[in-house]
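FAQ: What does the model actually see?

It sees only this:
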Amino acid sequence: MTDLLKWVGNKVMVTFGDGETISGVVDSFTGALDNAESGEDELNVVTPDHENIQVIASEIASIQVLEPAQSKKHFPLVAASL
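And it is asked to produce this:
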């Protein structure tokens, strides 16, 4: 599975190759080059029980969005004089 970055912020259900599923909010993405452990892209999914589960790209059969990411409000920058 490629392009995992697009899932960050969404509440998702991840289905693994063996049919097992987990649900939660994708709170971060680690690219393959930054992942010394597996060498693959990886998502961190926070479950409703506040458990952090690392999901490696090759383990994923499918991802379904349960709730889209909330839009982030943008706050104007305020310049301060020194």
